[in-house]
Amino acid sequence: MPKFSFRVERCPPEKGIGWEIRFFEGRFEFPDTQIIAAASADEEALQFAYQIAESEAESWIVSMGGWPPRLAKRAEPGQDDRQLGFGWDVEDATP
Predict the structure, then answer these.
(1) H/E/C letters for each residue in the chain?
(2) Averaged pLDDT, 8-29
(3) Is residue 24 one of the residues assigned to a domain?
(4) Domain contains 94
(5) Rounded Cα gap, residues 22 and 62, in angstroms
(6) Residue 19 forms beta bridges with which residues?
(7) How much is the mean pLDDT over the chain?
(8) How does pLDDT run across 25-61, given as a tens digit for each residue?
(9) Number of structural domains found in the chain
């Protein structure tokens, strides 16, 4: 079974304020990303936008046939402190 994952990273300044979601299947990165804009640069707005980004990415994994995220284990975050990475491996999760 394929392994679907995602990374939620802060948007580069040229793309606005908020988070950018990158999607993966195994080692393949899908060419499109999704931007979740924050209402402002304050911490509360960024946290709220992050929660939306994480929810959107988890929904994508489920729509691709992955296990519901609550049943699967999370991957380790990336080394870059600006990015948060999560992944669900359908082979590792057992309902």
Answers:
(1) CCEEEEEEEECCHHHCCEEEEEEEECCEEEEEEEEEECCCCCHHHHHHHHHHHHHHHHHHHHHCCCCCHHHCCCCCCCCCCCEEEEEEECCCCCC
(2) 91
(3) yes
(4) no
(5) 15
(6) 10, 36
(7) 78
(8) 888 999 999 999 999 999 999 999 999 999 999 899 8
(9) 1
Structure tokens, 43: 């911490």
pLDDT for the residue 68: 58
Long-range contacts from 42-50, C-beta under 8 angstroms, 24+ separation: 45/17, 46/17, 46/18, 46/19, 49/18, 49/19, 50/8, 50/19, 50/84
The Cβ-side half-sphere exposure at 92, using a 13 Å CA radius, reads 11
Structural domain includes residue 22: yes
- 44 in a structural domain: yes
In this predicted structure, what is the pLDDT of residue 44?
A: 93
Q: Are 20 and 10 in contact (CB under 8 A)?
A: yes
Identify the CA nearest to 33 among candidates 63, 6, 3, 68: 6
